[in-house]
Amino acid sequence: MSERTDLRVMGYYGQRETRQFLSIPIGPQRAPSHSGGVIWLKRQYGGADIRLTSRVSLADRPLTLVAGLAWDTMREARKGYENFIGNQLGVQGNLRRDEINNVWNLDPYVQASWNFAESWTLDAGLRYSNVHFKSSDRYITNGNADDSGTANYSKLLPVIALNYQATPDLSLYITAGRGFETPTFNELSYRADNEPGLNFGLKPSVNTTLEAGIKANVGYGQLTAAVFRTYTKDEIVSAGASGGRTTYQNAGRTLRDGVELAWDARLYRNLRAHLSYTYLHARYRDSFCSGPCSGANPQVPAGNLIPGIARNSATASLAWEPNRAGTAVSMSTIWVKYT
């Protein structure tokens, strides 16, 4: 638009289709509210981002301002079928579920970056995230009522960061920000009480992250190191699995502490190397039950580690990247340790 103002417009579109046969016995599928043992999903998704960037000054120091609007949408056609015909198993049978699900968000955001002193930069941002779910049930029969419904989630998400350029090759930073994670349609698909319809009682998780780190040019590459702590409330976890279906619930608060180290370097012309290591201690701060609390289903105590998250992980890669169009070659390895 001008030397001081830029306008960027980005868009994307995609689609996918999935059909999955579940190992659910015939008996449970005879219930009027059961959605069958075959899942058939068709999804279309897309979005756009419009961003205006202006470079001005404040107190005779450079100031960059950004204002934008992000839009994302997804339409899902979800059907369920019995996985049998008569006594024949593993085939697509009668229709047992038919719904159209839509989710979309329209998030305005602003950002500012102010180089208020020779070696100091202050960054701040604010985003209003609002996500909307709508489900339209098209399979309504005796014993299977209309399960249509809507859910709306919104949150104001701030972020702030301070960067100090100690030398041309060394910078230090601290940052704090809030995150917002809504349930996915997969997590909303089934209710923990086994009733029909989507699990609209599931709340989004909200997290606050504090981070400090350094970036340094060392030898042929850049070394980065960071420590962080993330507080999360209403963590979304499994409420149990039965008949090939997993349901989800909010478990309360969690805490994640971590350290990240990384080194990226150009070893020789087109040869690049990458090394990284992450230590992550993730645990529950509140006790909860994965399903109804009972003797057979005891409480998960506070302090337990969050499953599926590696305590230690490392990656290493080596890549040959030609300057011009051609064949790029890379190899990598990943190491994880859960305790």
From TrEMBL:
<dbReference type="GO" id="GO:0009279">
    <property type="term" value="C:cell outer membrane"/>
</dbReference>
<keyword id="KW-0798">TonB box</keyword>
<keyword id="KW-0675">Receptor</keyword>
<keyword id="KW-0812">Transmembrane</keyword>
<keyword id="KW-0472">Membrane</keyword>
<protein>
    <submittedName>
        <fullName>TonB-dependent outer membrane receptor</fullName>
    </submittedName>
</protein>
<keyword id="KW-0998">Cell outer membrane</keyword>
<keyword id="KW-1134">Transmembrane beta strand</keyword>
<keyword id="KW-0813">Transport</keyword>
<dbReference type="InterPro" id="IPR039426">
    <property type="entry name" value="TonB-dep_rcpt-like"/>
</dbReference>
<dbReference type="InterPro" id="IPR000531">
    <property type="entry name" value="Beta-barrel_TonB"/>
</dbReference>
<dbReference type="Pfam" id="PF00593">
    <property type="entry name" value="TonB_dep_Rec_b-barrel"/>
</dbReference>
<dbReference type="GO" id="GO:0015344">
    <property type="term" value="F:siderophore uptake transmembrane transporter activity"/>
</dbReference>
<feature type="domain" description="TonB-dependent receptor-like beta-barrel">
    <location>
        <begin position="11"/>
        <end position="322"/>
    </location>
</feature>
<dbReference type="GO" id="GO:0044718">
    <property type="term" value="P:siderophore transmembrane transport"/>
</dbReference>
<dbReference type="InterPro" id="IPR036942">
    <property type="entry name" value="Beta-barrel_TonB_sf"/>
</dbReference>
